[in-house]
Amino acid sequence: MFVEREASVGEPTSQERRDGQQNDKRILGNVVQCDGARATISAYAEDAEGTVTGLWTVGKMISINLGSTRTVGLVYAIGKSDRVWSNEGQNAIEVSIELIGEVRDGAEPGAKPVFDRGITTYPHIGAIAHRIRSRDLQAVYDLAGRHSITIGTLSQDEAIDANIAIDDTLARHFAIVGTTGVGKSTAVSLLLRKSIEARPDLRVLILDPHNEFAASLPEYCVKVDSKTLDLPFWMFRLEEFAEVLFRGRETEPEEVDVLRDLIPAAKNLYRNPSSGSYIRRGSDALTADTPVPYRIADLIKQIDERMGMLESKNDRPTLKSLKTRIESAASDPRYRFMFNSRLIEDTIHETIGNIFRVPNHGRPVTCFEMAGMPSEVVNSVCSVLARLAFDLALWSEGRLRLLLLCEEAHRYMPADPRLGFAPTRHALSRIAKEGRKYGCYLGVVTQRPGELDPTILSQCSTFFAMRLANEQDQAIIRSAIADSSASTLAFLSSMGQREAIAFGEGVATTMRLKFEKLSREFIPGTAKREQTLPAEAGDDVDLAGIVERLRNVPKPQQSIAFAEAVDTGRQAGDPDYRKPSAPRVQPDDDFDLRYGLKPSTFGMRQQND
Length: 609
Prior knowledge:
This protein has 609 residues and is an alpha/beta fold. The chain has helices at residues 134-140, 166-171, 184-198, 238-245, 253-271, 296-308, 316-331, 336-339, 348-356, 375-395, 422-434, 454-458, 471-480, 526-531, 543-551; strands spanning 29-34, 38-44, 61-65, 69-79, 92-104, 114-117, 128-131, 148-154, 161-165, 174-177, 202-208, 221-224, 365-369, 401-407, 440-446, 462-465, 499-504, 511-515. The strands form 2 sheets. An 11-stranded mixed β-sheet has the order 9-8-18-17-16-10-15-14-11-13-12. A 6-stranded antiparallel barrel has the order 1-2-5-4-3-7.
């Protein structure tokens, strides 16, 4: 079965690039078996001098010389047929390889070799196999002129850069998967830096559940958290607003139906204060999902009026319960980013511009930190942001390029449809399915691809698979990779730090790479870990401060004297609400103005001239 080394005839002259005096070390073995996807090579464990070396190791690429072309294969298994090692003489071994493609020389002399996926001419029995040349290895991973960025080096040859086609990686969506602690966040930070340098027009919104990316992108990032977010309640759709009111629990259909009827009336009152509760029917009619401002006071007033109607006698418990929910949410300090604005006005341009960086002012990345946000409202906010991202890209007609990066994506898009929030899943699915046509891209980062919605994962055309120990997660990735590279995933459970297997549209062929090493200050979460070092002996934990942050209740402010009498007939949002301030009356020492009383009307008669 095994071919003697002395019988090797070397490579054809047209393919030989070595000196005539060079020994025959590169001729390592011969093909003894081949099928449509794999081949077996007969070789020896020792080199020509009889020294055992690592010439044949799992993960290395080899080249099979066929004269005009070279077939490229990846070693995925080696062994001895008799399972016996001999210290005397040579040890014959079998090397199993997976066929990846073939390399052929350019038509013109001195032209670069060209790599093609798939096999047109299969190796014959006895074909010579040897270590792949660096020139051929570069051709295997060459992107054929596509706009590329360098993100690291090849694991099998650190002298060769690992490049990805950035336009195809972004436009067709990408996913980064790997277990905890393998460097997913560092890889995300590196990819974002390289992407922004290559695509200055790109805007990025990061859904950051651990508050760790803002410190790693200080020169590009604007941080938005629960204290600085301004997302008015009227920008929420009915389903999203109901999710907030019911605190993540199952909604009551009767109460949702009441909201569907009364929210349009409240919006109509804001637009036409003198029209009463009459709702206009026609092409410009408002619905509960129309992003038009309205007042919570008007909504509660509509509920009160509905409760006072004689025909609503049986609906009063439902109306009372709904009113209590609305008042409770509006007064909850954790929801101040929705209800904090006292002056209800149309600020949708400001809100969208701040979140999606239009204009970006040199900082195209928005890091949305969700660690301090109530868990029951996170789903609604993510749904609003994902929906706005797609709509912005759609109506900008491709002029606005947006990347929505979902860290811990299995939280928003779980595989079980009974979990999570349906509008969030639908909004992200819409980006995954149609976003590339309008310039809205999706980046998925997760440590549990087995718990992620398979519809979302199937739309990601480029994968960066880092170390995965769970068999179910490995099976998910194995189903996404091409059959010709399936053996590459045998390394998933044993890869080192910063190592990944990249496959899909963004790379020329399946590639095992090692990401570049980032500076310590740019690694996500480093600053937070340094701040939370173990306390020295004698240092007490500030429990009072922790409790204050837990309560999240704003401190009471000192009362301010009224500068003028307030007209209770007008409300925020009315056309003449912002009236010019009246000239201030200089107070006299004998009068107390704390209650808004004027000296000319209190205790005095009107004097005539």
